[in-house]
Amino acid sequence: MTDTDAWADELREHRAEKDRFLAEHRQSPIPPEERDSFDGLPYFEPDPDYRVEATVTVHDDPETVEMETSDGRTIEYRRVVTFHVDLDGERELAGYRQSLDDETIFVPFRDKTTGQQTYKDGRYLELEPERELDDGETVTVDFNLAYSPFCAYSETFSCPLPPEENWLETAVEAGEQARTEGRSTR
Questions:
Q1: Spatial separation of the C-alpha atoms in residues 132 and 181, rounded to whole Å
Q2: In sequence order, what DSSP letters do the residues of 38-84 get, joined into one string?
Q3: What is the pLDDT of residues 109-120, one digit of tens each?
Q4: What backbone torsions phi and psi does residue 86 show, to the nearest 5 degrees?
Protein backbone atom coordinates (compact mmCIF):
# COMPACT_ATOMS: atom_id res chain seq x y z
CA MET A 1 0.00 0.00 0.00
CA THR A 2 1.40 3.40 -0.95
CA ASP A 3 1.43 6.44 1.34
CA THR A 4 -1.29 7.97 -0.87
CA ASP A 5 -3.47 4.85 -0.50
CA ALA A 6 -3.01 4.89 3.27
CA TRP A 7 -3.86 8.61 3.39
CA ALA A 8 -7.01 8.06 1.26
CA ASP A 9 -8.10 5.13 3.48
CA GLU A 10 -7.59 7.25 6.61
CA LEU A 11 -9.60 10.09 5.03
CA ARG A 12 -12.46 7.71 4.14
CA GLU A 13 -12.52 6.40 7.72
CA HIS A 14 -12.62 9.98 9.05
CA ARG A 15 -15.59 10.66 6.76
CA ALA A 16 -17.39 7.47 7.83
CA GLU A 17 -16.89 8.42 11.48
CA LYS A 18 -18.38 11.86 10.83
CA ASP A 19 -21.35 10.33 9.00
CA ARG A 20 -21.97 8.01 12.00
CA PHE A 21 -21.88 11.01 14.34
CA LEU A 22 -24.33 12.94 12.15
CA ALA A 23 -26.69 9.97 11.89
CA GLU A 24 -26.62 8.80 15.51
CA HIS A 25 -25.30 11.30 18.03
CA ARG A 26 -27.72 13.34 20.11
CA GLN A 27 -25.63 16.47 19.42
CA SER A 28 -25.81 16.00 15.65
CA PRO A 29 -26.89 19.11 13.73
CA ILE A 30 -29.05 16.90 11.48
CA PRO A 31 -32.64 17.43 12.69
CA PRO A 32 -33.84 14.32 14.57
CA GLU A 33 -36.69 13.75 12.10
CA GLU A 34 -34.14 13.48 9.24
CA ARG A 35 -31.62 11.15 10.90
CA ASP A 36 -33.36 7.88 9.98
CA SER A 37 -33.15 8.75 6.29
CA PHE A 38 -29.64 10.23 6.52
CA ASP A 39 -27.28 8.05 4.50
CA GLY A 40 -24.12 10.11 4.75
CA LEU A 41 -22.73 13.30 3.31
CA PRO A 42 -21.64 13.71 -0.27
CA TYR A 43 -17.88 14.21 -0.67
CA PHE A 44 -15.48 14.91 -3.47
CA GLU A 45 -13.21 11.94 -4.12
CA PRO A 46 -9.97 12.08 -2.12
CA ASP A 47 -7.46 14.05 -4.17
CA PRO A 48 -3.84 14.32 -3.03
CA ASP A 49 -3.43 17.42 -5.22
CA TYR A 50 -5.54 19.29 -2.65
CA ARG A 51 -3.04 18.48 0.11
CA VAL A 52 -0.89 21.53 -0.40
CA GLU A 53 2.19 22.85 1.29
CA ALA A 54 1.68 26.31 2.76
CA THR A 55 4.27 28.79 3.90
CA VAL A 56 3.25 30.45 7.14
CA THR A 57 3.40 34.12 8.01
CA VAL A 58 2.87 34.51 11.76
CA HIS A 59 1.20 37.71 12.97
CA ASP A 60 2.98 38.63 16.20
CA ASP A 61 0.35 41.27 16.99
CA PRO A 62 -2.85 39.56 15.74
CA GLU A 63 -5.43 41.93 14.31
CA THR A 64 -9.03 41.58 15.49
CA VAL A 65 -11.43 40.65 12.69
CA GLU A 66 -15.20 40.81 13.07
CA MET A 67 -16.88 37.96 11.21
CA GLU A 68 -20.54 38.10 10.36
CA THR A 69 -22.56 35.04 11.29
CA SER A 70 -25.37 33.17 9.58
CA ASP A 71 -27.88 34.71 12.00
CA GLY A 72 -26.77 38.32 11.49
CA ARG A 73 -24.55 38.73 14.55
CA THR A 74 -20.80 39.30 14.56
CA ILE A 75 -18.06 37.37 16.34
CA GLU A 76 -14.53 38.58 16.98
CA TYR A 77 -11.56 36.49 15.90
CA ARG A 78 -7.85 37.20 15.84
CA ARG A 79 -5.94 36.80 12.58
CA VAL A 80 -2.95 34.84 13.86
CA VAL A 81 -1.39 33.51 10.64
CA THR A 82 -1.56 33.78 6.88
CA PHE A 83 -1.03 30.65 4.80
CA HIS A 84 0.54 31.12 1.36
CA VAL A 85 -0.60 28.22 -0.84
CA ASP A 86 -0.30 27.29 -4.50
CA LEU A 87 -3.84 26.42 -5.57
CA ASP A 88 -4.21 27.12 -9.25
CA GLY A 89 -1.80 29.99 -8.61
CA GLU A 90 -0.54 31.69 -5.47
CA ARG A 91 -3.29 32.24 -2.87
CA GLU A 92 -3.42 33.51 0.67
CA LEU A 93 -5.69 32.24 3.43
CA ALA A 94 -5.92 33.80 6.86
CA GLY A 95 -6.04 31.58 9.94
CA TYR A 96 -7.88 32.74 13.05
CA ARG A 97 -8.36 32.02 16.71
CA GLN A 98 -11.16 33.32 18.91
CA SER A 99 -8.77 33.43 21.82
CA LEU A 100 -5.00 33.51 21.69
CA ASP A 101 -5.13 30.56 24.11
CA ASP A 102 -6.86 28.38 21.48
CA GLU A 103 -4.67 25.72 19.91
CA THR A 104 -6.78 25.17 16.80
CA ILE A 105 -6.40 27.49 13.83
CA PHE A 106 -9.74 28.19 12.14
CA VAL A 107 -9.67 28.72 8.36
CA PRO A 108 -13.11 29.58 6.93
CA PHE A 109 -13.18 29.99 3.15
CA ARG A 110 -15.30 30.35 0.05
CA ASP A 111 -14.26 29.27 -3.43
CA LYS A 112 -15.79 28.88 -6.89
CA THR A 113 -17.73 25.77 -5.75
CA THR A 114 -19.53 27.74 -3.00
CA GLY A 115 -23.29 27.78 -3.60
CA GLN A 116 -22.86 25.37 -6.52
CA GLN A 117 -21.30 22.09 -5.42
CA THR A 118 -20.68 23.11 -1.80
CA TYR A 119 -22.59 24.86 0.98
CA LYS A 120 -23.83 28.33 0.03
CA ASP A 121 -22.03 30.15 2.86
CA GLY A 122 -18.61 28.52 2.57
CA ARG A 123 -16.67 25.78 4.30
CA TYR A 124 -14.17 25.44 7.12
CA LEU A 125 -10.78 23.91 7.75
CA GLU A 126 -9.16 23.48 11.15
CA LEU A 127 -5.47 23.02 11.68
CA GLU A 128 -4.15 21.68 14.95
CA PRO A 129 -0.41 22.25 14.96
CA GLU A 130 1.54 20.29 17.56
CA ARG A 131 3.33 23.50 18.61
CA GLU A 132 3.31 27.21 17.86
CA LEU A 133 4.06 27.87 14.20
CA ASP A 134 7.14 29.84 13.19
CA ASP A 135 7.32 32.51 10.52
CA GLY A 136 8.42 30.98 7.21
CA GLU A 137 7.60 27.43 8.32
CA THR A 138 5.91 25.06 5.87
CA VAL A 139 2.78 23.11 6.86
CA THR A 140 0.35 20.89 4.98
CA VAL A 141 -3.15 22.28 4.39
CA ASP A 142 -5.47 19.45 3.36
CA PHE A 143 -8.57 20.74 1.59
CA ASN A 144 -9.89 17.16 1.52
CA LEU A 145 -10.82 17.87 5.15
CA ALA A 146 -12.93 20.94 4.25
CA TYR A 147 -16.32 20.70 5.90
CA SER A 148 -19.64 22.52 6.02
CA PRO A 149 -20.56 24.34 9.22
CA PHE A 150 -23.44 23.07 11.37
CA CYS A 151 -25.72 25.83 10.05
CA ALA A 152 -25.67 23.97 6.71
CA TYR A 153 -27.83 21.32 8.39
CA SER A 154 -30.02 23.34 10.73
CA GLU A 155 -30.93 27.02 11.11
CA THR A 156 -30.72 26.62 14.90
CA PHE A 157 -26.93 27.04 14.63
CA SER A 158 -25.11 30.34 14.18
CA CYS A 159 -21.95 30.02 12.10
CA PRO A 160 -19.20 32.50 11.21
CA LEU A 161 -19.14 33.41 7.53
CA PRO A 162 -15.78 33.43 5.75
CA PRO A 163 -14.46 36.99 5.51
CA GLU A 164 -13.76 38.37 2.05
CA GLU A 165 -10.00 37.96 2.52
CA ASN A 166 -10.60 34.17 2.43
CA TRP A 167 -12.66 34.11 -0.77
CA LEU A 168 -10.59 32.08 -3.22
CA GLU A 169 -10.81 32.82 -6.93
CA THR A 170 -10.51 29.14 -7.84
CA ALA A 171 -12.58 25.97 -7.44
CA VAL A 172 -11.57 23.71 -4.55
CA GLU A 173 -13.12 20.38 -5.52
CA ALA A 174 -12.19 18.65 -2.29
CA GLY A 175 -13.86 17.89 1.01
CA GLU A 176 -17.60 17.96 1.71
CA GLN A 177 -20.13 18.78 -0.94
CA ALA A 178 -23.55 20.33 -0.36
CA ARG A 179 -26.49 18.20 0.72
CA THR A 180 -29.68 18.44 -1.30
CA GLU A 181 -33.11 18.27 0.32
CA GLY A 182 -31.78 16.71 3.51
CA ARG A 183 -30.23 13.73 1.73
CA SER A 184 -26.86 12.80 0.40
CA THR A 185 -26.25 13.11 -3.34
CA ARG A 186 -23.80 10.25 -3.57
A1: 41
A2: -----BPPP-GGGEEEEEEEEEEEEEEEEEEBTTS-EEEEEEEEEEE
A3: 999 999 999 999
A4: -105, 100
End-to-end alpha carbon distance in the chain:
26
Q: Pairing relation of β-strands 123-127 and 138-142?
A: unpaired
pTM value > 0.90:
yes
Taking the CA atoms of 25, 28, 32 and 36 in sequence, report the sign of the dihedral they define.
negative
67: β partners: 75
How many Å apart are CA 91 and CA 127, to the nearest integer?
A: 17
Q: What is the pLDDT of residues 9-37, one digit of tens each?
A: 999 999 999 999 999 999 999 999 999 99
Which parts of the chain are beta strand (E)?
51-68, 74-86, 90-97, 105-109, 123-127, 138-142
- Helix, coil or strand: residue 144: helix
